[in-house]
Automatic annotation (TrEMBL):
Superkingdom of the source species: Bacteria
Occurrences of domain Inosine/uridine-preferring nucleoside hydrolase (ranges): 4-296
UniProt protein name: Nucleoside hydrolase
Keywords: Glycosidase, Hydrolase
One Pfam family cited in the UniProt record for this chain: IU_nuc_hydro
Organism from which the protein derives: Aeoliella straminimaris
Length: 308
């Protein structure tokens, strides 16, 4: 299986992504590093810990804590609830000897240079800190999958910007400009998947820990999605990025040069791709431009159905 580190800001869709990743036979989740985003850093770290305790996989991934110094432009408590997990309020054991996410990322990447896929489903603060502190690691990250940004779709936190990129646009810009091998999975694609109420109904028929966990989180997500997004179902943005690590063949990518607007007022945090036919810029990432949405959804649903 492919070794992955999940860098996340739980978040109900981060929770779905974690459940899928832990159950996927294609992946070995070696660590889960928290970043602030949907909720403040401390709560995001607590949520990562809570999710792993609830899922209690046979081999626990190493957990990293979000930096308390992280400064973010927004949160998404309107969608994910004040606790980030839609009011599930899990208890957690006291956190002992936890290292910061950037340290955990650095350790693991140094241990297996070139072999680790990092799936980032929150703001890119940890990845940018890592590249700033240890620039030589840029060539040692096997692959970075970035959930966020848009190509032509509207933003979701502002008219122009996607949430993860907007929250720490400087970090995102630094990561985009870095030489890391990376693939961006934009909202244009993740918006295509809406898990309807039947998804929740099917989960209720399962006895697994995964299903019990999601049943505590997701009802609130269906309510907030209806209220704030006007959709009858929930998006599973972050889980799509995990599927991109499991089954890259379900995605079509294009090599492009991209950067992030960090000073605009209306466009702050927007991702900009140079698609001019005679661009002078060197492409710096692969951008997913098409996916087999039905197959991606089926991977999510089937993996969760078989999850322990
Ligand atoms: C992203 O925003 C967050 O609220 C979700 O968890 C996801 O990572 C989608 O724009
Ligand atoms: Ca997220």
């Amino acid at each position: 299986p492919r070794k992955v580190i999940l860098d996340m800001d739980p978040g109900y869709d981060d929770a779905i992504a974690l459940c899928v990743a832990l159950a996927a036979e294609e992946l070995e989740v070696i660590s889960v590093t928290a970043t602030g985003g949907n909720v403040e850093p401390k709560l995001a770290s607590r949520n990562v810990q809570a999710l792993i305790e609830q899922l209690d996989p046979p081999r626990w991934p190493r957990i990293g804590a979000a930096s308390p110094d992280q400064i973010l432009r927004a949160d998404a408590r309107h969608l994910h609830g004040d606790d980030g997990l839609c009011g599930a309020h899990f208890q957690v054991a006291p956190l002992a000897n936890q290292h910061l996410s950037v340290k955990v990322l650095g350790d693991e990447i140094r241990k297996s240079p070139g072999n680790i896929t990092v799936v980032a489903t929150g703001p890119l603060s940890n990845i940018s800190d890592l590249l700033r502190c240890e620039p030589d690691l840029a060539s040692k990250i096997g692959h970075l999958i970035i959930l966020g940004g848009t190509v032509s779709a509207p933003g979701n936190i502002t008219a122009a910007a996607e949430f993860n990129i907007y929250c720490d646009s400087d970090a995102a810009s630094q990561v985009f400009r870095s030489p890391v091998t990376k693939t961006m999975i934009p909202l244009d694609l993740t918006n295509e998947i809406v898990l309807g109420f039947d998804f929740l109904e099917r989960l209720k028929t399962l006895e697994s820990r995964t299903s019990k966990l999601l049943q505590k989180i997701l009802p609130g997500a269906y309510r907030s999605s209806r209220q704030h997004l006007g959709i009858e179902g929930i998006n599973a943005h972050d889980a799509v990025a995990v599927v991109a690590a499991m089954r890259p063949s379900l995605f079509t990518t294009q090599r492009l040069y991209g950067d992030v607007e960090t000073s605009g007022t209306l466009t702050h945090g927007a991702t900009v791709f140079d698609r001019r036919p005679h661009s002078v810029e060197q492409p710096n990432m692969d951008v997913a431009v098409e996916m087999d949405a039905a197959a991606v959804e089926a991977v999510i649903v089937d993996t969760l159905r078989k999850a322990p």
